[in-house]
Every structure is written in structure tokens, then in C-alpha cells.
Amino acid sequence: MLFFLLIIAQGKIPPNATLIFEIELYAVNKGPRSVEAFNQIDKDGDKKLSELEISHYLKEEFARDGKTRHPSVHDEILADIFKKNDHDGDGFISAKEYNVYQHDEL
């Protein structure tokens, strides 16, 4: 995350002075996702996530948390994942689309 701090002081700040900062959150950006998570989902190692791979991963996660869900929830989540991440519309989510390589660091 990148932070900018602007301090406007009138005159000198005395030594040992207590400074109080009021901070306002301006924006939140989605950082990179984990390469490890991508590789865990990418069962066939082709560097792209298919609907089947993500579906299998979702089923594993649903089973792990132990909550009962209607099957339509799985389908809605899967559709939403592809709607938001399959930017080129090829039916796969690449590492770039998964946001593995994008970093906010300086």
C-alpha cells in the first residue's frame, strides 16, 4: 500500500512535542493475489484456471467450512468469478487476470 503524508506546520515544532495526525482513507486498491493460491487451483498446471478447476476449488472450500449451501449458490459464485475476472472472455482466468503479477509497492 502506498501512503502519502502532508504535514503543514506553522513555525518550528518544538522538541519532544506530541504530534496528532488526522488520517483520512482516500482509496483502497486490490493488491496482488497469491501465486500459491493460483497454483493450488490450477490442477493441470496450464497457467490458466478453467471453470471446472474453480468449481472444484469452490466445492472443496464449501466442504471445508461445513456450511450447507443451496447448489444455486455455487453456480452464482462461479458465474460472478468469471464475470469479474475473465477479462478477455476466453473462458479461462489467466495468472494476469487473477492479479498475480500486479504490485502496489514502490
TrEMBL record:
Q: What is its EC number?
A: 5.2.1.8
Q: Please name the InterPro entries in this protein's record.
A: EF-hand-dom_pair, EF_Hand_1_Ca_BS, EF_hand_dom, PPIase_FKBP
- Please indicate if the UniProt record lists Isomerase as a keyword: yes
- Organism lineage: Eukaryota, Metazoa, Chordata, Craniata, Vertebrata
Molecular function as annotated in GO = calcium ion binding; peptidyl-prolyl cis-trans isomerase activity
Outline the extent of the EF-hand domain. 29-64, 73-106
Catalytic activity reads: [protein]-peptidylproline (omega=180) = [protein]-peptidylproline (omega=0)
Tell me the protein's name. Answer: peptidylprolyl isomerase
Fetch the Gene3D superfamilies from UniProt. EF-hand
Q: Which UniProt keywords apply?
A: Calcium, Isomerase, Metal-binding, Repeat, Rotamase, Signal
